[in-house]
User: Fold this.
Amino acid sequence: MRRFFTETYYFLLALEPRYKIVLFLVIALLLLAAVMVVIVLRERSTKNSVENRERRIKRNAEPIIQEIVFSEYDGAEFKDSIKKINRIVDSALYRRSNMGILNELVLYYHRNLGGEAFTRLEMLYREIGLKQLAQENLKNGDWHIKAKAINDLSTMRMGETLYDILQFTDYPNQNVRYEAQYAAVKLGGKKAMSFLDDLDTPMSEWQQIRLLDQSLKFEYELIDQVGTWLRSTNNSVVVFGLMIMRHLNQYHEKGELLKLLYHKNEKVQEKAIETARELAYSECIESLYEVYELTKQTRIKKQILRAFADLGGSKEVGFLRETIAKEKEYNLVFEAALSLKRMGRRDVLISYKEQELSEKGESIVKHILDDRI
Amino acid sequence: MLSIFWMIEFDNQNSVVDVLIYIFYFITYGYTVFVMVSYLVLGILSVIQARKYLRRNSYTDYLNILQSPEAPTVSILAPAYNEEATIIENIRSLLSVRYPNFEVIVVNDGSRDRSLIKLIEEYQLEPVDFAVNYALPTKKVKAVYKSKNPTYNNLVVVDKENGGKSDALNAAINISESDYTLNIDVDCILEEDCLLKLMKPFLEETDKNMIATGGVVRIANNCRIEKGRITEINVPNKLLSQFQTLEYLRSFLLGRVAWGSLDGLLLISGALGVFQKELVIACGGYDDDTIGEDMELTVRMRRYAREKDIDYVVGFVPDPLCWTEVPETWSVLRRQRNRWTRGALETLLAHKRLFLNPYYGKIGMISYPYWLLFEWLAPLIEAFGIFLLVLFSLLGVVNISFLYLFIALIYGYTVSFTIATLYIEEITFFQYKKRRQLLRLVLAGLLEPLIFHPFLVYCSVTGNWDYFFEGKKAWGSMKRVGFKKPGNGNKGQNTNKPTPPSKLRNKPADAF
Assistant:
């Protein structure tokens, strides 16, 4: 054997450099490939063992959780159950991972339950140490751990952590910041929305939709901050303010709304028109005419024509008729015709049909009058 | 190529020829190393991006958007030509996508089979007085149908004269009333939450204008499909499809994810992509005269946005969102790849202005040159290298032992890279759950560089030949056999009766 190695060594030593390089690379790559196959298989085994552990924890902990949630437990029985669950997840090596599995299990139940069961699950979450774990993660983790911890705490409605969470509503990492903002609204209601008053960072549409979804759960009352949001220099906050105004019927800031019809940001302008329409703010109709003349954006013009359907009267019918007859932009003709239909003025459209209209105009009117579409 | 020059036995006196060969040797050496390193860098970038995506998604709840009155409207555009075997199931799958506000627009592009009749019967369609705005010029729309059944209220079927896929998509864009369009191949199976995931980047972007997003396409051959949904994911049975599975994994999981993170994507696959409709119309829609219409539109949109000073971005979702059938015979695959080569070439030549043009930023300085040098030229250089190898062997100047060693090196690199891809799949999206399936892919990975790769090089060379010397522009054809019917107990999709040939409108699975 020794001789073999010696001979191989001298053989390799005698090789030209180009041979040596290529041979080294070939061996390294083939070894790498072999090692990676092993790693892939090992990864598969690890996954399987985690899955098995997950199944075992679920199998053992689920009946206990169900009992806690669905039965009338006294204090001693509750503590006893907590001890049992602790024994299930207890492990020298995998305790943290087991707690993660348990966390997902509790969250799963929480998402699918309500009422008294809901409250007991929250108690369990606190007592079992999952809340503490989430709070630790909030302080020490990477961005994704922080964000997940905030998400968990808000899902489990841990209201007492609101103050901790509020610290993150202007956090540099966008994901953490968004989760904190969402959690703040979920846990603190409209009062916690004060973070919007001086928010500098932009909020994505996705985030606005999430916050709105939570806000729609509020009981109806006036939200004083809406005015502040509408005056914000952060356009995303203005857009969100308009959404709140519209969906939560906040009529008290109509003055601000009127100003926003002239806003330089198209998105804000569009949302403002939409809000005026939905809130039936017919006093703004003269401003809408003005904006229609000033803007070059088809989207804004379309919104105004749409608003005329809800806010307008006979004057606007005339304007819409004129638009159908004279406007060259297809989308505006279409929108005007649609508005007339929405105003209940099919007669105007039918009279058009009978008169001479361009081929384009005629097909639009036919389209609008066809109720199957 | 590099190997050839390492294998030549030079004499000691440096003739002019020797010097030229040395220069060529250094160019090719640099090229090879650059290709290998770039694949490695893209791979690393992909892993970082995919992990970030998965971490963020671990707590994302799509329920908010699903219930939201503020969710933007989306039109799913599905052009169909002679798809009678699968069209009913496929439309059903499209209609069951989870999204709050969407419509499905199916364009029957002058099919010669019973596609339209089947649709009318199944979905109780009737013609309506739909006003078509020809914002994008297309062949004549004969009729627009809506369903009498309110369940299918969001289905629109357009019957038009045959004009090809681009024309059909343009017609669908004209009909669409939404701000965004999801452009797909009608034979694709979409994941239920596909639209939610594809729309998320549009809604998340705050600084720039998101103009398009793409998603990962996976292979559906041998998967179990029930009611238009993938219910069991399997590795294809046939070796050829397994090779393509590996190729798609590398292409989407490593390549596109990385390019997406660099905002350098030049291609949103025709099988799956969401586009901002206004911008598509503004830049002229799909080009009827190209066969690589998906890449051409992506490049044109980017170019248009840059020229109009729109601060834009193109996104990519690393999740597997769409499943498609791939060719199972070598002849069909050859036609497909030949077409892809011609399509990419056509786009590259049409937009040659981008090449190393700093005005276009990353796409001018990185993406376009990369495509040109490593997507288009790489197979040609490889073929040229093989030609030289044969030539030098005949001349007796090749060192055979070194040749073997070098082939082993290239083989080792390719296999390592494939296995690294499988590892990344394992730690990220983990679609192939059975151990046996994983081993089958490893085995396919060992054979792929010897069988599949040379075939692809051949297809690429013939594609170039056909483009430059034959002037070929037509599409190939592919036999659609239809996905398996649910409940018949068969796995896979290849047991049903064959359908008439349809256009082969599959999606590029470029190496990167």
